[in-house]
Design a protein that fits this description.
Number of strands: 10
Number of helices: 12
CATH topology of the largest domain: Rossmann fold
Order of helices and strands: HEHEEEHEHEHEHEHEEHHHHH
Structural class: alpha/beta
Helix content: 25-40%
Distance between the termini: 16 Å
Radius of gyration: 21 Å
């Protein structure tokens, strides 16, 4: 497997030469797909430079697409987070769309029986709680059991150069924590597939289809392509960057994280916290690579729906310095100190079990409840993170 990279003075990539895995695959190795009954696990964010979907490219190219598979949010990327998606048929092509976020979370043997090769092309974030990696892992296992080859067409991730957060404790495994990585694990879909094969799915038949013109430090602000939302809540590159720092609010109903607004995951606040106080405490806490500004907004979803929140907006100012998991712990620590730890964690609607699943461990919650500092909490996961970085080296396809 050969790394593909080009460089310029700014970020190590040349936008005019950037191509996704599927674009290169169709030009350089179409024989891997030609003449075979294809299954395609994809969604609406998997598009080329002209905005054409991967499935459209395949059908227009004369390839035999026998079945489609859709992850959370569905093949069309419109279902809300956590909502089951039904199996259906594509209205234009009359191809079955098998939901992998309903009664089943991985392809069934009967669904795989109708295909010969499975192509995966999804825009991911490289964040463990974002469930596309769980779908990737489950699909690789199912395909391996069925003897089906999986071609993983690669795409950029917002966190290619960032790894942060606690490792998943297997006793807290769930669909929002299905792979034993740090919270932010910094691998593209193809790299993740290679790592999964090396780590746990040894019998998987995987063919990575790398990108061209991308490297680990090509951050989302680089002009590679217009952003296509991979899910309703990740409307922008900015929301993608903020997601791992604020997603834990989904387990803490007293906090609003801007879902349903134009700035999901970038906004957060609570009725008992004033924006100026919250902003100043966050700035004093020393979260590298981020800035906070007062931002009042109307809550759209959850307990505070319809209520004006005197919150803050988070902006990632320096992706190279940004530590998403540390920022998450700092935000929670500041909020709990404002309202009081007892009141914060004794909320009757608090989903402690879900918080632990999102974090991949109960250690962070217990430490926060005990008043430990964010720096001390983050220090506990550093050694395991360094071991992970060493272990994953053979799976990487792109330069730093």
């Amino acid at each position: 497997m050969q790394s593909c990279h080009f460089s310029n003075a700014k970020s190590g990539m040349t936008p005019s030469r950037f191509r996704t895995g599927i674009e290169l695959l169709l030009v350089r190795r179409p024989s891997l797909l030609r003449g075979r009954k294809l299954g395609v696990l994809s969604h609406s964010a998997a598009v080329d430079a002209a905005g054409r979907s991967t499935v459209q490219l395949l059908i227009e190219g004369g390839f035999k697409v026998a079945a489609l598979f859709g992850p959370e949010h569905g093949f069309f990327g419109q279902a809300p987070a956590g909502q089951a998606v039904a199996t259906t048929r594509h209205p234009a092509w009359n191809i079955p769309i098998v939901s992998l976020y309903g009664a089943q979370r991985k392809p069934s043997p009967s669904a795989l029986h109708r295909i010969e090769v499975l192509l995966m092309d999804m825009q991911d974030l490289a964040v463990r709680t974002y469930t596309y990696v769980s779908t990737l892992a489950g699909t690789l296992r199912a395909a391996a059991a069925a003897g089906i080859r999986v071609i993983v067409a690669d795409r950029p991730v917002p966190f290619g150069a960032i790894t942060d957060g606690p490792m998943l404790d297997p006793s807290f495994s769930s669909f929002v924590g299905a792979v034993e990585t740090p919270l932010v694990y910094g691998m593209t879909p193809a790299e993740t597939a290679i790592w999964l094969k090396q780590r746990m799915i040894h019998n998987a038949d995987i063919v990575p289809a790398p990108m061209e013109g991308w490297n680990r430090r090509s951050f989302p602000g680089d002009p590679l392509r217009p952003w296509t939302p991979p899910s309703p809540g990740i409307r922008s590159r900015e929301s993608a960057l903020c997601y791992p720092a604020t997603v834990f609010g989904e387990a803490i109903p007293s906090i609003d994280i801007g879902r349903g607004t134009l700035l999901p995951f970038q906004l957060f606040g609570a009725p008992w916290a004033r924006s100026r106080q919250l902003m100043e405490r966050l700035q004093d806490a020393g979260t590298p690579g981020v800035a906070f500004a007062p931002h009042a907004y109307l809550a759209e979803i959850g307990r505070h729906k319809g209520r004006l929140i005197d919150g803050v907006r988070m902006v990632v100012t320096d992706p190279a310095a940004y530590r998403p998991a540390f920022t998450a712990v700092t935000i929670i620590h500041v909020l709990q100190e404002i309202v009081g730890r007892a009141a914060f964690w004794r909320d009757p609607e608090l989903r402690s079990d879900f918080f632990d699943k999102l974090m991949g461990t109960d250690r962070v919650r217990v430490a926060l409840m005990n008043g430990e500092s964010p720096a001390a909490i983050a220090g506990e996961w550093e050694a395991a993170k360094q071991k992970f970085l060493a272990d994953r080296r053979k799976a990487l396809l792109y330069q730093a």
